[in-house]
Amino acid sequence: MTAAEKDTEHTTEPSPKAIATAKAFVGGHGGSARAVVENLGRAGARIVLIGEDGQFGDVLVPDAATGEALVEAVDGLTPHKWDGETTAALKIGAAHRRRMAGARAR
User: Fold this and answer.
1) Distance (Å, rounded) from C-alpha 49 to C-alpha 87?
2) What average pLDDT does range 70-94 have in this prediction?
3) What top-level branch of life does the organism fall under (predicted)?
4) 77, 24 in Cβ contact below 8 A?
5) Which of 7, 22, 55, 72 lies 20 to 30 angstroms, CA to CA, from 65?
6) Quick one: what percent of the chain has pLDDT higher than 70?
7) Would you call 55 helix, strand, or coil by DSSP?
8) Helices (H), 1-106
9) What is the mean pLDDT of residues 41-62?
């Protein structure tokens, strides 16, 4: 097997830890959540989870295909894109906004 074949050969099955993290989020934030899979390139993919209560979290996986498989594997997750409805469902508090802004906001 060549190095190129190894790079393209990977599993799309999410790890048990990733599944457990997503299930815990869904259970802790209203029983369902929106999931937006973001491709991060070589770094993998990020699944942003937005709960019914507007809180958000994320799960990192090796690639976008694994992220999509995670969404399918967890009851209560529904795939979404970053559209107006999904963005409006997200509730970010003032403390989190300051933390995201960094030292300049303090």
Assistant:
1) 12
2) 93
3) Bacteria
4) no
5) 55
6) 88
7) coil
8) 3-8, 16-28, 64-73, 84-89, 94-101
9) 95
